[in-house]
Amino acid sequence: MKRLVCTLTFLLLAVPTGVLHAQGIGWTLTPKVGFFTPLTSLSQTDSTESKLATALALGLAIEIDFRATPLAVRANADIATNSEVESADGSVLAADQLNLVGDLLVRPFSRNYIVQPYLLAGAGLKRYSISDDEFDISTSEQMFTAHIGAGVIFDFGNVKLSAELSDYISSWEVSATESKGQHDIFGMVGLRIP
Q: Of 51, 83, 138, 192, which one has the greatest count of Cβ atoms within 10 A?
């Protein structure tokens, strides 16, 4: 993941900003911090429920903005760190979640306002990593995820901030014959550069 983020950052920074602005295209790099909380459990029986715990979330978004339109596209990476999940036998396992998606953003109002709401939709890859250090067990699951959400940009001239609430929607295999919808909510705030 670090390699992907570094490569995307380098490519965007290597393109001369003047050329992009002359063509009505802008770019933004947004480091983010916030929270992760699941809306649904990974599995559930009559007596137990395996659900990830609310945890710290970190993220990075690289956005290309088509200024003559209300549209923008972005590459987005969000990670939930140091979460926990209780297994069926009652033991607590460490859990992380990584989401890598491409999003389309729609800003219905002019960029001349201080407050600029937006909607987003996209898709990509979600990966859960679950481990137990005591027994040296580690497993990971990768799956397709849809990404929907809404946010707002606060443009104070030289300082631009964003606040966003989004849902990563995927299918989780409960057993070999059963799967269920998984909803993972991320609430993030970010500093938009430049």
A: 83
